[in-house]
């Protein structure tokens, strides 16, 4: 199927496959689903593998992308050449997904916000993606060793020092880049939020960590601070059998007029904050990569009032290739979207149609 460079509207009743199409695009970009952490869920029950192929048009060149998924794992290809690491594949196609559950970025658990940062910034920075993968691997190993120390299966803590050093090194890089990323995202978000809130509110971000502001001045100071924290927490970590400090436990706080919007904000303020952050990502990704991402809006319009719909659709018009899933194109959306490419989806079949 050939999609238009502007707004592509995917029309269909519920449970017809609209979200599946967005999931395919998302999977093609990030090699993972936004709906499940189990890749096997993406393979049809009657099939042995799943395959997603697409062609990305950039300026005058077209790049074929392909991901195959079997019980043995994933294979990703760029220009028909298999990539040895998934991290070298990610970044070929950049996407931003906005779904109703993304409101949980603001009001959900810290893990949701960490995942948001890792997924979005990972597309823009191979270095961040590398350190994140290394950190998770060492963290898993360190937690396993702490469990062994807890069960008195090991008496030697020298290896724990080695693992702590490795974790602090990768953790310092992650925290430093997260803070830099959030500062840039905050700048773009503030302009959008100021406009939607008609100048009555100011949006700010705060990175929440046991580290003090002085300890996050550089990678070196963060590394030293993490080392110190690991030493202080050692007996408690051995007692509990897990790592108790580090970027895997940090959080981001969104504040409106100085107050934590997830705790004290109204539902309207929470929706405005989530929308501001998502729209800001578009410009930040353009700033970082030189190209606008593809925007995936999964049943978002029904969750937004007319005012927020207007800001969203005006912001993306003639700017980014967008895919919108909806059961009907009506109201503000019908008035604001110029010459949309409309597709019907029924029983998993996608068909192009002329706009009525």
From TrEMBL:
One Pfam short name: SMC_N
Keyword annotations: ATP-binding, Cytoplasm, DNA damage, DNA repair, DNA replication, DNA-binding, Nucleotide-binding, SOS response
Superkingdom: Bacteria
RecF/RecN/SMC N-terminal domain sequence ranges: 2-328
Any one GO MF annotation of this record: single-stranded DNA binding
Main location: cytoplasm
SUPFAM superfamilies for the chain: P-loop containing nucleoside triphosphate hydrolases
UniProt xrefs under Gene3D superfamilies: P-loop containing nucleotide triphosphate hydrolases, RecF/RecN/SMC, N-terminal domain
Binding site for ATP: 12-19
Location in or out of the cell: Cytoplasm
BP GO annotations: DNA replication; DNA synthesis involved in DNA repair; double-strand break repair; SOS response
One cellular component term from this protein's GO annotations in UniProt: cytoplasm
Alphabetical list of HAMAP family matching this protein: RecF
Membership in a protein family: Belongs to the RecF family.
Role: The RecF protein is involved in DNA metabolism; it is required for DNA replication and normal SOS inducibility. RecF binds preferentially to single-stranded, linear DNA. It also seems to bind ATP.
Protein name, entry field: DNA replication and repair protein RecF
Gene: recF
